[in-house]
Amino acid sequence: MTELSGNDSHEWRITGMDCAACSRKIQTAVERLPGVSGVEITLMNERLRLQLAPETTLPAQVERAVQALGYGITAPAVAAPEAPTEQHGTETHADHGSHNHADLPTDQRWYHTAKARLVFFTGILLAAAQIAKWTFLVDHAVWAFTLACLVGLLPVARKALAALRAGMPFTIEMLMTIAATGALLIGAAEEAALVVFLFAVGELLEGVATNLARDGIRALAKLVPATALLEHDGHSHEVAAETLKPGQIIQVRPGDRMAVDGEIVSGISGIDESAVTGESLPVTKGPGAAVLAGTINTEAVLRVRVVKASADSTLARIAQMVADAEAARAPTERFIDRFSRWYMPAIVGVALLVALLPPLTMGADWGTWTYRALALLLIGCPCALVISVPAAVAAALSTGARHGLLIKGGAVIEAMANLHTVALDKTGTLTEGRPVLTDTLPAEGIAAITLLQLAATVEAGSTHPLAKAILAQAKSDGLTLLASHDARAFPGKGVEAMVEGALVHVGVADAANPTVALLQADGKTVVEVTRDGVALGLLALRDEPRVEAAEALQQLKALGLQAVMLTGDNLGSATAVANRLGIQAQAGLLPEGKIAAIQKLAAEGGVMMVGDGINDAPALRQASVGVAMGAGTDVALETADAAILRNKLTDLPAMIRLSRAAMANIRQNVAVALGLKAVFLITSVLGLTGLWIAVLADTGATVLVTLNAMRLLARDPRRGG
């Protein structure tokens, strides 16, 4: 037992769950215990969370209730700190490519599991019985088939009785027990044995398929190395990554993964961020740049200051959010769950009618109609149906996270797949969020390079966005700042300084100037540079659209979505950007204005709001889906329903394509599950198919929908189609 945030919160890892029916059985069983509340079971993450009222049910009683159903239950393992290995210099013999599996107990290979052993043993018995039949040892064959059936049925019956005691009479194990026992009683021992064997094979295949689907989520947790090189007193020590604390300095060698989120102290190197943001090309970073846990240092040794503990890293939080997102179930999943609750009892009722009515009303053969009723019972398990949604959602969430697209649950996926409008903020979303110098207009007799050099000299040391843009351009052009003194700033008007014996002023330009008015009409901010009161020229700056913004909007249009800009900026700036991008614009909106605009757009259908996650928080919450732009920032991960970690707008249509693909996959799964059930329900009543076909219809459909959902794991959402 592990306590979380409070004395009554508990969490365990559950093993052996292969489908949503398994998780529902566990939930029903533990909810019946006194003092239990807030039960949450995630199939793909194999996690059980609940709250216990003091002095009621003990954690051990919860564990026994789960074990009685035939499932494994363990508290999450706590990694023991590894003994540090002191080393001198930068050499070490540790393998920094190793992964931390402490929180994920190693799973058995499928052929080492109890299910595999059961399949193997019953298969041998079934083969022996078949050989006896072929060699005309009919009497022995009947007993061999009966033995094979009973051996395979025993663990199934045990689970059925445990579920019955927990208040769940309608389970697939109970239906299988009744069907196989009934088949033995009417003399169909051979078919009963085959049915039990096929059921065991199906259970094994379900487990294999579900574990493969889980691998996509598990992969996120395996990207962070278990150890790091911690600097201390001139030496470096190998320590467990989870022991690192903010402020400490670690060394990261070429080829190593970052163990924590940090900031580069010294060194310049390419950083491969594909594991976190999905960015395929390494990004060159140097002192002061942020680096994320799980990213790879590709070129040179870096010294990195720890910013967050390992458990709080961006990657750890992404992995946790993907795991937690399973609890945010889609409306379709909730509907199917409600449907499945009455579906199985209804099938049992139909089976009883099939067994009783024809013999009682028409004098039909009891054995024939009992057999058909038993086949119907095996059609009654809704496993394929209830796994159809969570399997696809889990695969989509994992794929999205692998490509830097964080989506918080099935409900968000479904809402995103049914959008009509995408509303986008301007500054920091459609634009880069920082102005750049666009025009240098010197007066007659003044060189452009001189104008920029003087302006940069005066702006040196200023933190104003316009000053930063001027200085950045001067640095890019290789200009050297001149000597200056007596610098002064005049808020709202500009700055000035003495440069080479003259007073140089950089400030707001006169809007009455036709040139200034023309530039402002194009959405630009204009400053004037003067020397001893004489105008030297104008500098125009503008927050430019992102280089990929136009392409992203074209992709949204191709997806049949309309896009609109909602911004608090003035109409001139908004119109200038909107015209360049070919998008409608609503300007001068306060936060409440954006909310009203979204409410109006929502009358036409689902609305997605895309913003920076800070200023747009109210609008993000108001929209059907709120998406935050942010390269792994806290705001991007916490504020909205989804986040684009690469900070590239083209990932927006990619996220929508992934959601649509997931919903298409879900529809395919539901069609397969219901279609096969309907077909074999009819053929079973008509006597065209028997017990073993009914088992294949159930377990085969479950495996099919799981494998179909796994196709999403290989999908690249950034590619169209």
Write a brief structural summary.
With 721 residues, this protein is of the alpha+beta class.
What would you note in describing this structure?
The chain is an alpha+beta fold and 721 residues long. The protein has five domains: 2-74, Alpha-Beta Plaits (2-Layer Sandwich), CATH 3.30.70.100; 85-105 and 225-312, Distorted Sandwich (Calcium-transporting ATPase, cytoplasmic transduction domain A); 112-210 and 327-392 and 662-714, no CATH class; 404-430 and 547-659, 3-Layer(aba) Sandwich (Rossmann fold), CATH 3.40.50; 432-545, 3-Layer(aba) Sandwich (Calcium-transporting ATPase, cytoplasmic domain N). The chain has 23 helices and 28 strands. The strands form five sheets. Strands 6-8-7-9-15-10-13 form a seven-stranded antiparallel β-sheet, with no helix packed on it. The two termini are 47 Å apart. The relative contact order is 0.10. Mean pLDDT is 81; it is low at 1-6 and 77-106.
Shape: elongated
Count of helices?
23
Cα radius of gyration in angstroms: 33 Å
Proportion of helical residues: 40-55%
**Number of folding domains?**
5
Q: Approximately how much beta-strand content do the residues carry?
A: 15-25%
Largest sheet: 7 strands, antiparallel
In spatial order, strands of the major sheet run 6-8-7-9-15-10-13
Distance between the termini: 47 Å
* Average of pLDDT: 81
Number of strands: 28
- Poorly predicted residue ranges: 1-6, 77-106
Structural class: alpha+beta
